[in-house]
Amino acid sequence: MGTAVRRRVAPGLTAFLAVAALYGLISGMASPHLPRRVWMGAHYVEDVDLLPTYRTLAEEAWYLIRSGSLSTGTVVTAVRVLVGVAVGTSGALVAALVALLEPPLGALLGPWVGFFQFTSPLALLPLYVLWFGAGEVARVLLVATVVGVTVFVGALEGASLLPARYLEAAAVLGLSRRAILRKVVVPYATPYVLASFRVAVALAWTGVVVAEVIASAEPRVPDHAGGGVPPGTHHAARRGGHWAVGPGE
User: Fold this and answer.
1) Domain count, the chain
2) For burial by CB atoms within 10 Å, which of 33, 84, 131, 173 has the most?
3) What's the pTM value of the predicted model, to 2 decimals?
């Protein structure tokens, strides 16, 4: 078992170390030659490390840990993923049962599933903002869509691979359609559902990263009524190693 685990882990670990070494080399050589001032939304961001060194990354990580931002953000993101996985999996299983019991409805679901399956979450993001607003509902539903489509396709694939002799034997025994679905199709398709669920959970984390772009599209600055200067005359700058907001140039 140890040998099998090493064989599975070694390629990924080797690739990770190679990428880490390449990043360290490039960040050390290219950082002095990259621009230090870029646009983010409608504001300048000053003193930017487009390829920060590992030391800078470690300092920022320690600041996030010490301030509690990392733990709070991790909890919020994990809750979004869990809710999205629960909603997406439940909806996918119900839709798969409907598609198996009522083939005409399954034929209607097919084009929509294909649309969401082959459209990236980043492309779906503007649609979800328009449909559901820039709130938690849009974020959770985006994750649920990524999960649900994967589980739905896996469930139907498992059901379609069921050998015909099992259905013939169930028909000879006089089982109804619902009984065949409950006692033959569902047990046979369960391993495929679990395999697709494992893939869907991994994709959920990709989906939540895209979903959280909704809340971080541009820096937030004080408005004029709150005592600050009008928007558009601010820039986000790094002071003392961390992000701050101040008047623009």
Assistant:
1) 1
2) 84
3) 0.69
